[in-house]
Amino acid sequence: MHWKQKEVLEYLSEVDQADLSEIYQNVSFYYYYNAHKHLGAIMTRLVRAGRVERIKSGHFKIKAKLPQGQQLEIFD
After folding, report:
1. What range does the domain containing 27 cover?
2. What does the alpha-carbon distance between residue 6 and residue 10 come to, in Å, rounded to a whole number?
């Protein structure tokens, strides 16, 4: 995992949900041009990896983890 992704995940773990502008304002890295596109690409990779949930377009929250030992199927 890239250090930028780790930093985004650390920020999202501190808040309930955030949009791209809030995330960009609270991370240490920056982009010279077209920041929302590049940050959106990072967020898309995190969503596909299953670490972040997309609430709606441009709004994200960290994905809740299931507790260990929780029954996932009806017939276990």
Report:
1. 3-62
2. 6
pLDDT of residue 69: 63
In a domain, 17, yes or no: yes
> Is 12 inside any structural domain?
yes
The conformation of residue 59, written as its DSSP 8-state character, comes to E
Residue type, 17: Q
In the three-class reduction of DSSP (H, G, I as helix; E, B as strand; rest coil), residue 71 is classed as coil
> pTM for the complete prediction?
0.79
Question: From its phi and psi, is residue 15 left (phi > 0), alpha (psi between -120 and 50) or beta?
Answer: beta
Residue 8 maps to a domain: yes
Per-residue b/e over 20-48, b at no fewer than 16 CB within 10 Å?
A: beebbeeeeeeeeeeeeebbeebbeebee
